[in-house]
């Protein structure tokens, strides 16, 4: 059974507007891997654990129909609210019961989600619903770096804050920290790619808004509601940046990790 987080309406709304989206080159890598041996029509793809649709929308140009599935109705509400693409459909479903017929999907994706799944059940459903030569793509992004000359202390300050709230994340967060090093796809033909980076230019408010979407931060604040650790982080970062300008641009870089596996047997 999958674990259920990020389901509250407020958290879902915050997640939808503050989380990074993946760059087109990440999807290009997935589609290129699929195209190497899958030579039929790109008709159906499914994004499992789609959340508010950050990854689902990237599939739209390649497939006739894309389905986004999540256990959280609040996350799907946010996905539907911003969806403008006619070939995407969002539905409630869990990772261990993919609502498609046998051998019906070209591609199954799970973005920043597989570490919450019961992987044995998920892989069984993936194998059942993938077409021959279809592909499973499991991917995510890890803790970001603030890129810039002499920003080592800025990054150290940000990392120290993360370690402060780290115990309040669910235990499976370790898989994100390890870039899915211990998640093994069930196929013999598989590759791993860590070359894609997500880049953003954020000011301090935008960075702190991202922090407020962390489940670890939210749980910390639930336990210590009178502690203003976000304001403390703001001041600490400004001090390390040697500036009082809160609109100073921070060049953010999120490392990604992509696991790709191909169904070559029945």
Structure report:
It is a single chain. With about 270 residues, the chain is α/β, with parallel strands linked by helices. The chain has one domain (about 10-260): 3-Layer(aba) Sandwich (Rossmann fold), CATH 3.40.50.150. Helices cover about 35% and strands about 25% of the residues. The chain is built from 10 helices and 9 strands. Strand 4 (about 105-110), helix 5 (about 120-130) and strand 5 (about 130-140) form a beta-alpha-beta unit. Helix 1 crosses helix 4 (about 75-80) and helix 6 packs antiparallel against helix 10 (about 230-240). The longest helix has 14 residues, at about 25-35.
The biggest sheet amounts to: 9 strands, mixed
Whole-number tally of structural domains: 1
CATH topology grouping? Rossmann fold
Overall pLDDT score: 93
Instruction: List the uncertain runs.
Output: 1-7
Strand and helix order:
HHEHEHEEHEEHHEEHHHE
The CATH superfamily name is: Vaccinia Virus protein VP39
Q: What is the CA–CA distance across the termini? A: 25 Å
Helix content: 25-40%
Strand content: 15-25%
Structural class: alpha/beta
Please identify, by name, the CATH architecture: 3-Layer(aba) Sandwich
Specify the overall morphology. elongated
| CATH uppermost class | Alpha Beta
What is the radius of gyration?
19 Å
* Count of strand segments: 9
So how many helices? 10
Protein name: Methyltransferase type 11 domain-containing protein
Pfam family, one: Methyltransf_11
Domain Methyltransferase type: 47-137
GO molecular function, one term: S-adenosylmethionine-dependent methyltransferase activity
